[in-house]
Design goal:
This protein has 812 residues and is an alpha+beta fold. Among the domains are: 201 residues, tricorn interacting facor f3 domain (Immunoglobulin-like), CATH 2.60.40.1730; 219 residues, Orthogonal Bundle (Neutral Protease, domain 2), CATH 1.10.390.10; 112 residues. Helices cover 42% and strands 19% of the residues. Helix 3 packs across helix 4 and helix 21 runs parallel beside helix 23. Keywords: Aminopeptidase, Hydrolase, Metal-binding, Metalloprotease, Protease, Zinc.
Length: 812
């Protein structure tokens, strides 16, 4: 038996992928999996039978990062001693070939390709797979690159009490025999290896016939009541999305069955064809707020958009990864905005995802949206705010620049021509250009091949654009003009391409550039407008304009032009008027971050009190009560604020956890209350919330416990709980007890070598945000050279730059 250890598999290069694609064509995979060993143990076994054609006499290799026990090519046994770095050499190929590889994988606990997880509340075992970008090779032999699509047929043996789910419907399920059943699935259409899936476990199931589709929802048993609570809303969003995309793209989703599986211990979601896998954090443990519901709808529609853009039509190589993700992000918001109650989702995006893109674009971690990707490892370094969020914003700008009619016509032509195939960016841009009657070559180069954020200015009746490197990007934007009461006087569309453009604007109290937020740029209006907006942004008549006005203040703080208290002040003034639950939580989060991390230490307590005051005022509005109370509980200081938070804690465990954490931060830790709340909380991972409360204490032993769980034992679930624990760890005002951990963090982060993107992310979230300039300098120094994993290096470069900016703001 050969051990092709997953510790150091080779990273496929673009050149190797192109050579292999020119050598072979894959017809189908017939993959037999034995999951019965996962009920009590760690091992999954596979037999992968690959049928493919090749140039007679040619050679190539197949990927398999697992323990290979046998391999035959056209009936002849292969020498397992030739296997190296997860590659099995294949020589003297025939015109038609059959390769059979038997393998097993026992690393089912690190989430690299597969995760076996045990629900702590009831002991049930669940298994999920997720293969982007090249992790299918960890479970079975395959040609693991996106442009070698093939039909997949799965046969799976699993414990008899388990439900097994894959991309297509099960053709048959055997009767139980010796404690196991065999599931045989229908053939898939031609798919890239990274979007196939097998998930298994004793799931609870919801099935419904909606809009001509057979929809399925699955979750672990301990979340059955929460799934039942939210089932109709999730099904409604799913039905809307399938109808919306099918109509707008002029191509209905071509498979009747569409499943969504909510799995434990997963961050985010994955767009597996016909069987999307979501983190089960989206099955909210307590009744979801509007902010929660907006986030979940966006994720559902993002992954669904990939059925067309990514799965049906797939990029040839990872240099177009940005397009895959950016399009799904754009489409999700576009589709969400058509759902009643979600109309202002673009405002929410302006305050969250787009803000993050602007921030990243100002750091040394920025890069062109499109770039050279010599290997898969390098591609993964670009899973960031530029790829997803700036890319999304640039597609929104293209939508505005050529108009929706041409935009949709281009997409329809693109899907019709390339369904089940692979493409490059030029294929899409040519389709857009043909539909719009425009040559988009210069547009593509300017927007996608150059990093940085333009500045759009209004002065002396002219709109002008400047960029740091002289790149001329065309911008289509709107200028809104307002009277002294905030009433809209006019909206003036402007396109700036080669130089300043004269605009005829009405006399107004203020002019807001990019008021509809359709382009990606920093904006500077005339001085009178900026002064008025600083005091009156809350009077603006629509949520997107209010979000743009506040985001511009955050951008000014990020650039070092204003301080954290200025952002808190602007947010507070907006929240005197804002009652839209799609954005109030985002406003409060922005203010809280400005108060804690961008404010001089002597003023942090005062600024957090202002945030709590704004939250307390919002809590009187039923539509905003839950979100506001959660923020209030985390920052309450006065007896009145604490009393209101206590009232909310009786109704909502999320409020209760935040309040206990706030008290622990100030030295008022109540172990009995924590234990009681952990028992009351329906979340199977409530232990993480309890750990967060203990972590917030200003004690060395509290910080050490969190450090061990996150950085040493790596027991923290691979979910957003990592963000909450990091915030509880690095509390302002606890610098003395935290001092040793800054260097320990740098030592641990720079030593990261394995564990996948999710594991990287969990550990990198513990960055020492409250430390001083010397730590940021040390972090930057650690990134010199190429010793770090590319994703880790890019992340630390970004975090260190933001840290430097925060230190400067705190010193004002």
């Amino acid at each position: 038996m050969s051990d092709t250890s997953p510790a150091a598999p080779a990273s496929l290069t673009q050149e190797e992928a192109a050579t292999r694609a020119a050598t072979i064509t894959v017809d189908r995979y017939d993959i037999a999996l034995d999951m019965t060993g996962l009920l009590e143990g760690e091992t999954l076994s596979s037999v992968s039978t690959i049928t493919f054609s090749a140039r007679p006499g040619s050679s190539t290799f197949v990927d398999c990062v697992a323990d290979v026990s046998a391999a035959t090519l056209n009936g002849a046994e292969l020498d397992l001693a030739t296997i190296s770095a997860g590659r099995i050499p294949l020589t003297d190929l025939a015109e038609t070939n059959t390769l059979v590889v038997s393998a097993s994988q026992s690393d089912t606990a690190s989430s690299e390709g597969v995760l076996r997880t045990v629900d702590p509340s009831d002991g049930n075992v669940y298994v999920w797979t997720s293969f982007e970008p090249d992790d299918a090779r960890r479970l079975w032999a395959c040609f693991d690159q996106p442009d070698l699509k093939a039909v997949h047929a799965f046969t799976v043996a699993a414990p008899e009490e388990w439900t097994v789910l894959s991309n297509s419907a099960p053709a048959s399920v055997s009767d139980a025999e010796a404690g196991a059943r065999t599931w045989v699935f229908e053939d898939t259409p031609p798919l890239s290896t990274y979007v196939v899936v097998v998930n298994a476990g004793p799931f609870v199931e919801v099935r419904a016939e909606r809009g001509g589709y057979d929809l399925g929802l699955y979750a672990r048993r301990s979340l059955e009541s929460q799934l039942e609570r939210d089932r109709e809303e999730i099904l409604d969003i799913t039905e809307h999305g399938l109808a919306w995309y099918g109509s707008k793209f002029a191509m209905p989703f071509p498979q009747r069955r569409y499943d969504q599986i909510f799995v434990p211990d997963m961050g985010g979601a994955m767009e597996n064809w016909g069987a999307v896998t979501h983190s089960d954090t989206f099955i909210y443990r307590t009744p979801p707020t509007q902010e929660d519901r907006t986030e979940r709808a966006n994720v559902i529609l993002h992954e669904m958009a990939h059925m067309w853009f990514g799965d049906l039509v797939t990029m040839r190589w990872w240099d177009d990864l940005w397009l895959n993700e950016a399009f799904a992000s754009w489409a999700a918001v576009w589709a969400s905005a058509a759902v009643p109650g979600y109309e202002d989702v673009w405002a929410s995006i302006a305050l969250t995802e787009k803000k993050m893109a602007y921030d990243t674009d100002l750091t040394p971690a920025t890069h062109p949206i499109r770039g050279v990707v010599p290997s898969v490892d390098v591609a993964m370094a670009n899973f960031d705010a530029i790829t997803y969020m700036k890319g999304q914003a640039v597609l929104q700008q293209l939508h505005a620049y050529i108009g929706e009619e041409a935009y949709l016509a281009g997409l329809q032509a693109y899907f019709a021509e390339h369904a089940y195939g692979n493409t490059v960016l030029d294929d899409l841009m040519s389709a857009f250009g043909a539909a719009a009657g425009k040559d988009l070559t210069a547009w593509t180069t300017a927007w996608l091949d150059h990093a940085g954020t333009d500045v759009i200015s209004l002065a002396d009746g002219k709109v002008s654009v400047s960029s740091a490197d002289g790149t001329v990007r065309p911008h289509r934007l709107d200028i809104a003009s307002y009277d002294a009461e905030g009433g809209l006087l006019a909206t003036t569309p402007v396109t700036v391409e080669d130089g300043p453009v004269e605009v005829d604007l009405p006399d107004a109290a203020a002019h807001l550039l990019n008021a509809t937020d359709v382009t990606f740029a920093a904006t500077r209006s005339d001085e009178a407008s900026e002064a008025w907006l600083g005091q009156n942004a809350g009077r603006l008549p629509d949520a997107v304009a209010r979000a743009v006005a506040v985001s511009s203040a955050w951008a000014a703080m990020f650039r070092g032009e204003i301080a954290g208290p200025d952002v808190v002040s602007r947010v507070a003034s907006v929240l005197e008027h804002e009652r839209n639950p799609q954005v109030t939580g985002e406003f409060l989060s922005m203010a809280a971050a400005a108060a804690e991390l961008w404010t001089p230490p002597a003023r942090v307590a005062e600024q957090r009190t202002l945030v709590a005051d704004a939250a307390a005022a919002l809590a009187t509005d039923p539509a905003n009560r839950d979100t506001a109370l959660r923020v209030l509980a985390a920052h309450a200081t006065t007896p009145e604020q604490l009393a209101l938070a206590e009232e909310g804690a009786a109704e909502d465990v999320q409020v209760a956890w935040r309040l206990l954490g706030r008290r622990a931060e100030t030295g008022d830790y109540d172990a009995e209350a924590v234990a009681a709340l952990e028992a009351r909380d329906p979340d199977p991972e409530s232990w993480v919330s309890a750990l967060g409360v203990r972590t917030a204490r200003p004690l060395a032993e509290a910080k050490e416990e969190a450090w061990q769980v996150t950085m040493v034992e790596r027991r923290l679930p691979r979910t957003d709980s990592g963000y909450a624990l990091s915030s509880a760890f690095w509390r302002p005002g606890q610098e003395d007890v935290l001092a040793p951990y800054a260097q320990r963090y740098l030592d641990a982060a720079t030593a990261i070598r394995g564990g996948g993107l999710l594991a990287y992310g969990l550990q990198l979230r513990l960055y020492p945000v409250t430390a001083g300039e010397e730590v940021a300098a040390a972090a930057r120094a650690a990134c010199e050279g190429d010793a770090l994993v590319p994703f880790v290096r890019q992340t630390i470069i970004r975090l260190a730059d933001v840290h430097c900016r925060q230190v400067a703001a705190r010193s004002r």
